[in-house]
Amino acid sequence: MKSMSEEPVPLHEEFIYCCGAATHVLKCGPWKDLSKDESKNLPRLLFMIIPDTDIKELEDVFGLNGQVEHKLNFLKKNVSKDIKLVLIAHSIGCYITLEMMKRASELQVLRSVLLFPTIERMAQSPQGKLMTPLLCKLRYILYMPVYLLSFLPEGAKASLVRFALRGMKTCDESSIITSLNLFSVDCIANILYMASQEMMKVVERDSTTIKQNLKKLIFYYGTGDSWCPQHYYDEIKMDFPDGDIRLCEKGLRHAFVLDASKEMAAMITDWLQDDLTKL
């Protein structure tokens, strides 16, 4: 029998409308519809990855609250309520995940992995102090240069992205492809709007929700992260000494997806082994 890593994993890609917004969904595995509970072949566990997102129809679907409701709405409409969940989140996705667990305590969350979590005092962080004036007051001036750059050929755009990332020893080609979306004015507008809300609304850490779900949470902080500096790690570690709160010893950057996604995936797989063997 082949090991799990050797077996080919089917990949399905589709766009759906959720809360009025076109939503890109990537599904790994043989199951195309997890909302049907009649099948005996449904998986017992679903991994949901909530990235650093930069949608009734929600009144403010691209805002911070709208993004929380968007994820909850997606689960309600597309995933059977009996399926256990592993939530893997990065950056502001960690704030969204905690809010999901707070608002929908009925979710069958087995484990939540919070990577480089921006869950408190974002505007007071080193990067926040630099970016808050730009994001909250001056973001509109960025639209014109992005609009002009959007007319460049795709090859020229890719060259600009490679130039911007030239300092990295290795860079995933998929990161370059994804970064081409930054030449879209609509994409940039949504990212900057969302980021401005993060600076204003992500202030106090939700210690109550963390305490209620502590045994389900894994935190992973960076040593040189200017969005959630190390003293944030020191403080949450002191407040929750029994929590699984880890400090990166590998020197990974906040935007690890650019050059260390496989290394991070391997670590998360190792962390979850005990949980998975109990299923």
Fold topology:
Elements: E1 11-18, E2 21-28, E3 45-50, H1 64-78, E4 84-90, H2 92-103, E5 109-115, H3 126-137, H4 143-149, H5 154-164, H6 173-179, H7 185-201, H8 207-212, E6 217-221, H9 230-239, E7 244-247, H10 261-271, H11 273-277
Helix pairs in contact: 1-2, 3-7
Report on the structure:
- It is a single chain.
- This protein has 279 residues and is an alpha/beta fold.
- It contains eleven helices and seven strands.
- It has a five-stranded parallel sheet with strand order 3-4-5-6-7, covered by helices on one side. Strands 1-2 form a two-stranded antiparallel ribbon.
- Strand 6 (217-221), helix 9 (230-239) and strand 7 (244-247) form a beta-alpha-beta unit.
- Helix 1 crosses helix 2 (92-103) and helix 3 packs across helix 7.
- The longest helix has 17 residues, at 185-201.
- It starts with 10 loop residues before the first strand and ends with a helix.
